[in-house]
Amino acid sequence: MLKVLVNGADGRMGSQVVKAVYDDKELELVGGVSISHVGEDAGVFAGLGTLGMPIRAGLGQALDDLKPDVVVDFTSPKAIFENAKTVIEHGVNMVVGTTGLTAEQRTELGKLAEAKKTSIFIAPNFGLGAVLMMKISTEVAKYLPDVEIIEMHHNNKLDAPSGTAIMTANQIAAARKEAGIEPAPDKTHESLDGARGAKVDGITIHSVRLPGYVAHQQVLFGGYGEYLTIRHDSIDRKSFMPGVILAVKKVGSYPGLTFGLENFL
Ligand SMILES: NC(=O)C1=CN([C@@H]2O[C@H](COP(=O)(O)OP(=O)(O)OC[C@H]3O[C@@H](n4cnc5c(N)ncnc54)[C@H](O)[C@@H]3O)[C@@H](O)[C@H]2O)C=CC1
Ligand SMILES: O=C(O)C1=N[C@H](C(=O)O)C[C@H](O)C1
């Protein structure tokens, strides 16, 4: 049985991961770590009232004590780089769902993992539908290069734009380049800063944050007297769990860095 430690165990995603790992017959949940709810009774915050397991305060100490095979991290964009270094330094494999790592940081973590002979898997989105949305968008972009992204999330999300929107923009820009086609120039003058959103690889991203939303994205392609919209909606965080469990089981077979769930499908 693979031993799994969940970092951010009491969070919106971490508590779902705790339950998904606990329910999987091939995995053994060895513990949870967080900074907000810690201690003997804090297990209830990890989504399982019957967990009977404390939530620990220190990742390094938990790694030493519990000796997991895999750490799953859903914490915060500010913490993830240091968390990942700690896990790799301990020689433990890692599955990262936390957003916010730059391409340079991912490369650095990959090199560290290779040096330590461990594996790190990072995915901005574990939803199958979201991965397909990105894949389809890169195909469409070869024919319809004019595109903007609208991502919509719950109002407690800490980062903007979303990791998924950044990955979508990166992939679309690469596909456009490969196809040798360019979008029409944006001639709009912004009379108010930010009115046209933010640009990633030349692609405009608009971020909506509202209560009631979970995780949603539209990729809008403009054409000649027509337009095409690709939309994905995660209406429940359960949507991410099959991808997380798949990654936990596969990560050890992929040394160094792997980026994106499509590599495991
Ligand atoms: N890859 C994917 O499919 C998905 C990724 N995410 C990402 O996961 C991250 C977490 O999202 P949520 O669960 O909604 O956040 P959340 O705020 O509900 O949960 C994060 C938890 O981590 C804890 N935490 C923060 N810093 C920590 C640290 N240094 N060490 C240990 N625990 C720490 C917090 O106390 C909190 O309980 C975000 O970056 C989000 O964008 C969210 C959903 C899906
Ligand atoms: O914070 C979230 O909720 C989500 N974060 C990820 C992202 O930033 O893309 C994945 C999903 O969109 C949910």
Largest sheet: 7 strands, parallel
Heteromolecules bound: 1,4-dihydronicotinamide adenine dinucleotide, ligand LZUJQKHR
Task: Tell how many strands the DSSP assignment holds.
Answer: 12
Ranges with pLDDT <50 over ≥5 residues?
Answer: none
* CATH fold topology of the largest domain: Rossmann fold
> Mind telling me which CATH architecture of the largest domain this is?
3-Layer(aba) Sandwich
User: What is the average per-residue confidence, as pLDDT, rounded to a whole number?
Assistant: 95
Secondary-structure element order, N to C: EHEEHEHEHEHEHEEEEHE
Family: Belongs to the DapB family.
EC number: 1.17.1.8
Function: Catalyzes the conversion of 4-hydroxy-tetrahydrodipicolinate (HTPA) to tetrahydrodipicolinate.
Subunit structure: Homotetramer.
